[in-house]
Protein 1
Amino acid sequence: MRKYLIVGNWKMNATHLETIQMVQKLSYRLDVSDHQRVEVVVCPPFTALRSAQTVIEADHLQIMLGAQNVDWHESGAFTGEISPEMVAKLSVRFVIVGHSERRGLFGETDDVVNKKLTAVLAAGMTPILCVGETELERDSDTAGEIVGRQVREGIAGVEPDTVASIVVAYEPVWAIGTGRTASADDAGSMCTFVREQVREVSGDAADAVRVLYGGSVNPGNVAGLMAKKDIDGGLVGGASLDPDTFASVIRYWM
Ligand code: PGA
């Protein structure tokens, strides 16, 4: 059984003080039964991780922490970068790798994404591997080719038993931050396709991998998306910044 997972990707938003308030407000809106049903993760910026960790531990919250990115080296002369161990020591459990903004704006290739995913696993955390086609790729009917390659190259070289623990987020680039969501049917069939790509590389580990949908998820469309058999949760950007809205996404069945 795959447990639902809803991840808030705050991107470059929220100071450490705002983060404390956002985490607390979100926690007030969730109860024990929500956490039994759904794992909840927030990914604030690096500068807010320590503050978020402190609130989560002091108040024994069940909200988990994620980072939005890491470098793949262990340490060294990489000015401005953050290592996997640095975030792991802040009780970070998940790390987003290969988000389309990192691929598109910061030039991350499938090879770099694979190195990051491997480094995150080596540091004992769970990578959330993001994949997805651009509008141009979709219009030229190459979405399957692109997404398939991103999945297969992203997990290349990882033992099947380990692959079983990872998370893959299918996020069509044209749906991110645009208010345009893939239809539940399209999102569902792409997530099935993603799982089949994992199966090609890692066999039955694919059945354990959690596949998330991301791209303009909101309280109004989340239930339809979550009803699809191969969608195990969501990666939520804009709608995760307001605790009330994010709580409504998390409590999608109510
Ligand atoms: P969005 O972002 O929900 O604002 O579309 C999703 C993401 O980029 O992970």
Protein 2
Amino acid sequence: MNKGIAIYPGSFDPPTNGHLDLIERGAKIFEELVVAILRNSEKSPMFSVAERLEMLRELTANLKTVRIDTFDGLMVEYAKSLEATCILRGIRAISDYEYELQMALMNRKLEPTLETVFMMPADKYSYVSSRLVREVAQAGGPVRGLVPEVVEQKLREKLDPAYKLRDARQIEVLGRRNFAKLEKKGKKKA
Ligand code: PNS
């Protein structure tokens, strides 16, 4: 176990199974892990900071060394205020690397005493991102297995019309298929 506090910063809009996987891995190697949600008024998030805080708290309730918090402004300043020594970030694929490298080097420039530690989530989550989860859910698509159940439930509540619209579309498609089948049968008989 690594001594000291590590920060796992991010937007978590919404938290995914990939995030949770990384939190569990981080909790094993750091004495204390603070999952820090960025309060960014510029973006228009799907979930409010309060909703994300609540979801993450519920999801990590069993992890005694994990704490959920929010921050504003420069992440390194927030990290310093907690006397954290490490920043934890996840890397899924090579495409993440460039952005993460830039951010890690900028953070090092801003605060040389803070180390960024990269961890990889389980490969089954290597394609899962909050952005894609939002996109699928906004179209009423299934997100089971990509996000924890509590998040899936919240997405369904928030996007109820999108899910209803997709159900209606699927019923329409089934209806058309059945009609085509009946028509085919009718032609054969004739
Ligand atoms: O999950 P995300 O959206 O990729 O997380 C990005 C985050 C929140 C870690 C990053 O945008 C951040 O730290 N923002 C705070 C402002 C800051 O310190 N910017 C300089 C980073 S190089």
